Amino acid sequence: MLNKKTLISALFAVCASASAFAQPERPNIVVILADDLGYSDVSFNGSKDITTPNLDKLAANGTVMTSAYAAHPFCGPSRAGLMTGRYPHRFGSQFNLPTNHKSGGLGIPTDEKFISKVLQESGYYTVAVGKWHLGETPEYHPNARGFDDYYGFTGGGHDYFPEKYQKKYQASLARGMDATIFDYIRPLERNGKEVRETEYVTDGLARETAAYIDKASKQDKPFFIYAAFNAPHTPMQAKDEDMAMFPNIKDKKRKVYAGMVYALDRAVGRIVDQLKASGEYENTLIVFFSDNGGKTPTGASNEPLRGRKGDTLEGGYRVPMFFHWPNKIPARDNYYHVISALDLFPTFANLAGADLTGVKKLDGVDVLDAVINGENARPGQSVFAMRHRYGYSDVGVRKDNFKALRFGSKDEWQLYDVNKDPSETKDLSGKYPVLLSQLKEEAEIWAWQHAEPKWFHIHREGFQWREKAMPRFHETFNYKPMYGE
Amino acid sequence: MLNKKTLISALFAVCASASAFAQPERPNIVVILADDLGYSDVSFNGSKDITTPNLDKLAANGTVMTSAYAAHPFCGPSRAGLMTGRYPHRFGSQFNLPTNHKSGGLGIPTDEKFISKVLQESGYYTVAVGKWHLGETPEYHPNARGFDDYYGFTGGGHDYFPEKYQKKYQASLARGMDATIFDYIRPLERNGKEVRETEYVTDGLARETAAYIDKASKQDKPFFIYAAFNAPHTPMQAKDEDMAMFPNIKDKKRKVYAGMVYALDRAVGRIVDQLKASGEYENTLIVFFSDNGGKTPTGASNEPLRGRKGDTLEGGYRVPMFFHWPNKIPARDNYYHVISALDLFPTFANLAGADLTGVKKLDGVDVLDAVINGENARPGQSVFAMRHRYGYSDVGVRKDNFKALRFGSKDEWQLYDVNKDPSETKDLSGKYPVLLSQLKEEAEIWAWQHAEPKWFHIHREGFQWREKAMPRFHETFNYKPMYGE
Amino acid sequence: MLNKKTLISALFAVCASASAFAQPERPNIVVILADDLGYSDVSFNGSKDITTPNLDKLAANGTVMTSAYAAHPFCGPSRAGLMTGRYPHRFGSQFNLPTNHKSGGLGIPTDEKFISKVLQESGYYTVAVGKWHLGETPEYHPNARGFDDYYGFTGGGHDYFPEKYQKKYQASLARGMDATIFDYIRPLERNGKEVRETEYVTDGLARETAAYIDKASKQDKPFFIYAAFNAPHTPMQAKDEDMAMFPNIKDKKRKVYAGMVYALDRAVGRIVDQLKASGEYENTLIVFFSDNGGKTPTGASNEPLRGRKGDTLEGGYRVPMFFHWPNKIPARDNYYHVISALDLFPTFANLAGADLTGVKKLDGVDVLDAVINGENARPGQSVFAMRHRYGYSDVGVRKDNFKALRFGSKDEWQLYDVNKDPSETKDLSGKYPVLLSQLKEEAEIWAWQHAEPKWFHIHREGFQWREKAMPRFHETFNYKPMYGE
């Protein structure tokens, strides 16, 4: 496959030097990423109370993946995996960056090449909109990682109502607290320059994404747009008109949550409208998914999955996902094979015929043909998740229909057929002990490749890591050496 | 300011290629650094028992800074900060290098560019005399860090009487203990070659500094001389004639200490005499200060400041300082605004019109204009100090007149107006809680940028660091995250 | 000496450009490394029950070193020291690599230049046969570290009987456990490509070594062959015919062990026969030794030395060794001066007149002249060993006839004249306290140069390291600083 790719890449290089000549065969790529969206919080994936008409329409005409996994059960590492095509543990990014402008000088290591950079170098016009969360200082900024244009906020989240957060921001400034103002209320930016957003942020990001599609469509190159909405991440702030769409929802939290998702769906509609208006709809691969599972305490639902954001239970990192590309991707509502957010890097790179020079060993696979044909893209290959807690690690190892699970500090591994039993209720570890031991062993081999965390979300996590002499993999894997030294 | 500098630098580059042409407008720079000299151990700064006539004369004709801070409360990191213009915590140099030739292969990271290198590259003749303490192997030697010439000892201190330490050294050699002989009794060196010093070391260093000034004055370039006296650092060894100058001092320790300071003052006189004799006095900026506060148990005094060397109390790192430059720096005995040893790097670099390529983000500011005009060089900007102890960290955050202080393992932050209350007696934390919380937060943001220590002074410190899962910043800052992940 | 080398190197460079011209004066070098072979498990070194006729013949015509030390008391670090000429602690390789294909991405750092690379660059044809144990992924493979050809297995050991291990391997494959199959039963390889070995592995490696000698002898360059037999390392598997050679050995373990050594001796015979047949015997330096002491629980004997593999007692790392080179190395059965496996790098490099550009500071010395003349190659210079245990470190410091020893967690250093008292029975620490304190101090200076371990053999070791806040050198050396900061 490498050879084919190299060839394609070489051809494009020739074309590129012949220049003004258009390359119709390379599709545009639009990634729409939701934030903390639960598995069953969109109607195409089973929500009974939240309606998402625009997403549903796309989903109905595309392939819905029912076993899609984020690269990690929470935000920062999940996005690091998406951008690098590699498990964040490999490069010490297994924790969120410190909040609140404490991440100066910290970010995803610059020797990890982002898919945006790969696509940019292969001739794509590249745009990021929304939440970044991968480093705030110049060397880690979207514009330094392969995005020609960027509009959004580089921290881990943002307030939604400009009039409110701007007031808070001005008050803080007046108190002389510039360096310490919380990320969530700082001004948005365009390519590093502060801007004054005026719309509810989800609407603002939709407006900008649409505008960039318009700009992109006027260029002689395909485009890659990474629209990373912060909805429905905290703070829980919805427009009254959006909440009013759900008169039947009585629970207050759920109502706010539903309103935030509804705004997200409206944003998707706006993006689709612009793609059509710009004549790019037919030649655009749209990938929609969430960065991790829903946070149930703030109103999300992952049913029928067990667990929530942060867990290695299915509810923690199995996410709603679809691919949409007219005449290429078939309409199918249950592509049940495993797909990982890590697969998007090689899939996109191959679509672009991109050169992978400088890209380290990727952890995902090109899934395009498998998705088109409804086949398993990685028979016999495992997909891993590991989340470090205070003194122990939770693990998930998904291979084909099965998943080995370690959850909680007690060293008891379980095994589930998560295809038949997505709620992880029937432990099959007694039935398939060899399979379980094989999955554990694979995860241990993977864990040996982890680097020490380069940062922690808060100082306390770092202390706990050191205090407990983490990562304590000997307990996680309970490894018994066979021969001596 | 960067642009102006670049321009000046470019102009000098042109001049340099035109070569033999003198550049009278660039001043010579002479840094005279004392070692462990207390805040009130020089008469110009309030000493009642120690007389320092030569220092006093310079101080009277220059600007005395009453709120000058070393980069760290003890020696190695303080000097690392001076040389790099950056907090030593940024590059893992927050502890002293191991003593006694155990620092083989250790030293201030070579990707930190020293002010000496910057000045050397901009056309200065550069000389270091005295104590180094920044790495002993060739890659860390003064000659490798930008000094054309060096005379002194690369360890952290030295005995003073040659006839005595040479005898001890020979006895050790005779016992076949070459590799393990204590640094303090080894021969001095000139540019890496052993020499046999014959004078009391303070006098010897003065002699060499004067000789280098003479050599420098015969060259067609300005010069930078870093005269780093070890006096009055331990071992406490004074000449009888110097102690005899203080018949009124009864305390034995204080008498020895006073004698050592008196010798240092004589050395300063000798340097000034040579500057005059060489015709360089008028065009030379002299900066005098101490690497940290006085060590009271060995006879120093930091009155009215609280605390001593090693503390983040004022007595630990507020030091006597003056700038002297005829017709440029006004005679002023109380420049009370904050100045940091970290400021010398950008100040000197700008004076030299030096190119800062390869220099990382500096922590100080160019203070020249502010000092000349008696203004605050960094309104609203904090200066930090942090010293790691066994299981906790002491912190000082100075901004304008105020200082937030954490001292001791109990998590109680205090706030002082150290301008009015340099003895840190009236805790204002209850009065200005917002200011205190802001200073804490700024220090926490700064702490996120620290690197793991690359070494420890003694192995025990390293064990303690690991045993207590340091740096335990969660306790130091008692940080409460606002939003979740 | 450097200058002489540089000169020779320059001359060879001239010769090399004149090309087809042979360089008869540069000898071939053949290193025959045994694995876990005990000090007294070869008859030339005192074994009373195991006969090793082929080794004995070489030993009788060469110089037998009675105080030869491996670079470390166990396998991986010992070989890392051999290949780099540097203590493995310097580059974080003080533990064995993780077993069982868990070492993906781990290996001896690539900025450590191997002797094989140095010899290859100086014009030698270079071959490795047998066990590698220095990294399994491509960047760490023998072919990437300076070996033109390689036949063997890259892990830390191997089963011996192909028909048996291949059956186990196929069974594992059939269970779909490819990623997790134990190293010891995987196929051997030639230059990265799997091969199907058919002979008892010791015989197979002998066959390949002989074949490479044949190939080498047909080239216009000298050769360097590193024949790293896994015998007599576990698993304990001997041929019946070899065990039958020892009817007097009743102990079952010892009988198997003896059979394995006998096969190794046969392999040596085969290598010698081929050297003679190829006409290379006279111009070849053969160095035979073991990577560490014998593992007594599996049948080895280190008598009269105390301790076994893994210990810093003499039995842990003093190993049988001889040099053989007709007309160059004299026949001598007791070269009693200290020699270290670390000495082979500079010795070989000088023999080849090799350029040492890119080679870091070597820890050994060129011993050739000293061996020829029966002199001490490093008078007054120490050879160190340090093995980290659970919460403490064992240390050995050998200088001239003496050895300082710390063994076990109690902080009691001992001193032995290991020349007269190789069993380490008479503690001389009371008699020579100054010498002991000097050796301790030297070891501490050396320890300051250690890097953090880059990996651990099993995850448990890593946890223990962190849990106990290792390396705890303050306890190992019980250092008391003389002056303050």
What does this 3D model show about the protein?
The structure is a homotrimer of 485-residue chains. Chain A contains 14 helices and 15 strands. Chain A is an alpha/beta fold. Chain A folds into 2 domains: 26-373, Alkaline Phosphatase, subunit A, CATH 3.40.720.10; 382-477, 2-Layer Sandwich (Arylsulfatase, C-terminal domain), CATH 3.30.1120.10. In chain A, strands 1, 2, 3, 4, 5, 6, 7, 8, 9, 10 and 11 form an 11-stranded mixed β-sheet that branches. Chain A is globular, with a radius of gyration of 22 Å. The first copy, chain A, starts with a helix and ends in an 8-residue tail after the last helix. Mean pLDDT of chain A is 92; it is low at 1-23. Chains in contact: A-B, A-C, B-C. Chain A binds chain B through residues 74-75, 96, 98-106, 156-157, 175-177, 179-180, 182, 184, 234-235, 295, 309-310, 455, 457-460, 462-463, 466-467, and chain B through 380, 434, 438, 441-442, 444-445, 447-449, 466, 469-470, 472-477, 479, 481-485.
Q: Which key terms come to mind for this protein?
A:
Arylsulfatase, C-terminal domain; 11-stranded mixed sheet; 485 residues; 2 domains; 15 strands; 4-stranded antiparallel sheet; alpha/beta; Alkaline Phosphatase, subunit A; homotrimer
Q: Quick gist of this model?
A:
The structure is a homotrimer of 485-residue chains. Helices cover 31% and strands 17% of the residues of chain A.
The CATH homologous superfamily of the largest domain in chain A is named: Alkaline Phosphatase, subunit A
Q: Please tell me the overall pLDDT of chain A.
A: 92
* Largest interface, counted by CB within 8 Å of the partner chain's CB: A-B, 35 and 25 residues
Q: Extract low-pLDDT stretches of chain A.
A: 1-23
CATH class of the largest domain in chain A: Alpha Beta
What fold name stands as the CATH topology of the largest domain in chain A? Alkaline Phosphatase, subunit A
What oligomeric state best describes the polypeptide chains here?
Answer: homotrimer
Order of helices and strands of chain A: HEHEHHEEHEEHEHHEHEEEHHEEEEHHH
Report the principal-axis shape of chain A.
globular
Please provide the count of β strands of chain A: 15
Q: What number of structural domains do the residues of chain A give?
A: 2
